Amino acid sequence: MRVAKRAKLDVSASEMNGNLENGYPCQSRDEDETKASGGLSTQEIMELRTKHIGKACEVHFKDNPIKIAYARGQYMYDEQDNRYLDCINNVTHVGHCHPHVVKVCHEQMGTLNTNSRFLYDIIVKYAQRLASTFPPQLSQCHFACTGSEANDLALRIARQHTDAYDIITVDRAYHGHTTALIDISPYKYRKLGAKGKKDYIHVAPTPDPYRGMFQGEATPELGEKYALEVKKLIDQAHKDGRKIAAFISESMQGCGGQIVYPPNYLRDVYKYVREAGGVCIADEVQVGFGRVGKHFWAFESQGVVPDIVTLGKPIGNGHPLAVVVTTPELAESFAATGMSYFNTYGGNPVSCAVGNAVLDIIENENLQQHALELGDYLKEKLLQLQTKHRLIGEVRGMGLYIGVELVTDRTTRNQPQKRQEELFTRQKRSLF
């Protein structure tokens, strides 16, 4: 983990006007119970959602949803003050309402809280610190508010730099909700049927050793075999008179099933793409910031350096912050259009201060090492369960980025859709 000097965490319980619970300064139990019991009932919320919030904006356990009244650390609390372990947590990287984040956010909001084209300290200090965690060639930051914005901007930069338009993506991938990103997200656009895929999108098979086109042990040879499928797409695109602008992939696939790519996959893919004149984009929105344990950035596990890296979700611990990190060469190409880049909220002082606080906490609380140790422990326990339950086909992952593959039969590897839904619903009871 390559980081600059960290700030000292100087928040005391008294500063938060509360006591300690699970290592977190928080309000008194009476205050928390008042918060939990106040406000609208679950039924009232659902009625108002039906009336005023779009139907596509779904909630978990939609047949019997949970109202979360407040959260602390790794726990969320409902209106009856029942405590739930947050096992989603791809956003609250350092825990809900971390006191250092709350303190820094409050202080910055009282000093300077809007983005502008004037000079202010925190954006450059944060950019410098963030860049220090990357290989030296990745040194230029462009700020946005969400991972979707970051990935959309990454496509713009790639297309401007290469003067090409076609994108190679990986099957089952999800990269965001804008129109351009739905186009490169088979996880989403396949729901649209035949009209979903655009002709300028080329889909490589998911390099999944368990369920993919090529199955077996996750060896370098398997990674190279999957990478050759990307080369075939490039060769076919060239035969069709098309040019590849970029290859985009999460460094480990998330929505596609927590897939850890076999060794040498990204190494060879990046080689083929660059030889074709394209650039390589690593989507670290879900897998970055030490979550995989052994590395601060998941792309490091493949021994590669991308041309563009996109960051979101945990970067601001729930605050709207995202960044596109790239090389000086690509940043110069993007600027050469003469069209300046400005994002009304991207890089605002409050978000940058929060992002800086998140880096403080990762360093001072040794969270990367914690992810490695706790992840190894969790995988060990899950593997023990696998010996007892044939429903578990495979346990995979790195650090605290772990997936469990459920099957009806370990030979056919068919997926038990109904059982998966049952297990998801049962989590509602078992996690509190």
Automatic annotation (TrEMBL):
Belongs to the class-III pyridoxal-phosphate-dependent aminotransferase family. One of its GO terms (cellular component) is mitochondrion. Keywords: Pyridoxal phosphate. GO terms for molecular function: pyridoxal phosphate binding; transaminase activity. It comes from Desmophyllum pertusum. Residues 1-40 are annotated as: Disordered. This is Ethanolamine-phosphate phospho-lyase. It holds the Pfam family Aminotran_3. InterPro entries: Aminotrans_3, Aminotrans_3_PPA_site, PyrdxlP-dep_Trfase, PyrdxlP-dep_Trfase_major, PyrdxlP-dep_Trfase_small.
